[in-house]
Write a structure and sequence with these properties.
The protein has about 350 residues and is of the alpha+beta class. It contains nine helices and 13 strands. The structure holds adenosine-5'-triphosphate and magnesium ion (MG). The site of magnesium ion (MG) has 3 residues, from loops.
Length: about 350
């Protein structure tokens, strides 16, 4: 936290809660070009004085599950404290406490989304490295290991046999999830090498993006997504090559109303939901990102860059309209946006 949470100038604005400056750059530009007042709460560390009250405005939480990889180990915990404080004061928060809980635990995501009839890959949650092989034996092979608190494809590895898993566990390469929970998950074999990520803003479909996973076992080339061990096929869309991400024209899917009901029930206004389709056509939802990023090249190719139909443009408009509603003050926005709440 590099500034006081309670600024001296208490004029209403949008507050962006995050811990990674790099990911906020495009959002800043979209606020500025629309004349929407905003401030950032960079919550890597700091002091939250519970005796104070929050300033007027709208609060947008984009805390990331992978914050510990940027040496911000307790940023999610500080964010949870701030969100509790905001809630107790009745503040308008987009992606509130429940969204943060789900961002930090894939188990929590799977349990919450399956209640809406959305299928997730079979998964066992394991604490204790010595229990992983037994969990994989129960599930069967091929199996995937991944971190429960993840992002950036942390710890995602495919194993075809018990011998390969044993070798990995015995090597120095195995790394535990920061919350100690390793997931052992059914590998979903796809007829074609891609996954789909569906972007929602204000609870409404913005677009879906198809992510090529043919380079599956190589590192994501984007600096912002780079990690020490190879992910299976990271879907982090920020700043990756344009041919890897392609926006799907007129995306529609039978799961859309279920995903939207899940988002609404879990206090999530803005998210990217990832799913994969197996050889028999069954769709499995395996990841909910509440600090979603967007691939700029894919948006350029789809004619969305710089418009209200771009990811960050839509978010800026949505938050600007909430701010206008909150303060009664008109905020500048593009009149064509379909995302202004009623
Ligand atoms: N059960 C699975 N079967 C097949 N492929 C999978 C499975 N789980 C994950 N993958 C692949 O690994 C990638 C990363 O997995 P996942 O999204 O669960 O991890 P993450 O840490 O949240 O990554 P990211 O931040 O890139 O979304 C997926 O986009 C997909 O390509
Ligand atoms: Mg993912």
């Amino acid at each position: 936290m590099r500034q006081s949470l309670i600024p001296q100038d208490r004029s209403p604005r949008v507050y962006v809660i995050h811990e990674n400056d790099e990911w906020v750059v495009p959002l800043r530009d979209n606020f500025t070009s629309r004349g929407i007042p905003f401030a950032e709460w960079h919550l890597d560390q700091g002091i939250l004085d519970l005796r104070g009250s929050p300033p007027p405005g709208v609060f947008y939480n984009r805390m990331s599950a992978s914050s510990h990889t940027r040496n911000h180990r307790y940023a999610p915990e500080l964010t949870a404290a701030v969100l509790a404080w905001l809630k107790s004061h009745g503040a308008v928060v987009v992606n509130g406490e429940r969204a943060l809980q789900l961002e930090l635990s894939k188990v929590a995501q799977y349990e919450a989304i399956s209640r809406f009839g959305v299928e997730t890959p079979e998964t066992l949650a394991v604490v204790g490295k010595e229990n992983i092989a037994e969990a994989a034996r129960r599930l069967g092979y091929p199996a995937i290991l991944k971190h429960n608190r993840a992002g950036k494809g942390l710890g995602v590895r495919l194993f075809l046999s018990p011998a390969a898993l044993d070798e990995h566990l015995a090597s120095g390469e195995f790394e535990e999830s920061v919350d100690g929970i390793t997931l052992v998950q059914r590998y979903i074999k796809t007829p074609a090498p891609f996954i789909t990520r569906v972007e929602f803003v204000g609870g409404k479909l913005l677009y879906a993006v198809r992510v090529d996973t043919s380079q599956g076992f190589e590192l994501c080339p984007a600096d912002v997504c780079r990690i020490d061990s190879p992910p299976l096929a990271g879907a982090c869309p920020a700043a990756a090559p344009s041919d890897k991400f392609r926006i799907v024209r007129d995306f529609d899917h039978p799961l859309l109303p279920k995903w939207q009901a899940f988002l609404a029930a879990n206090d999530i206004g803005i998210a990217g939901i990832e799913f994969i389709v197996d050889e028999s056509g069954r769709a499995f939802t395996y990841d909910v990102n509440t600090n979603t990023n967007y691939n700029p090249d894919a948006e350029v190719k789809d004619g969305r860059a710089g418009t209200a139909r771009s990811g960050m443009g839509a978010i800026a408009n949505y938050l600007g309209s909430l701010l206008g509603r909150e303060t009664g003050a008109p905020t500048r926005r593009e009149p064509t946006s379909p995302l202004i709440p009623a």
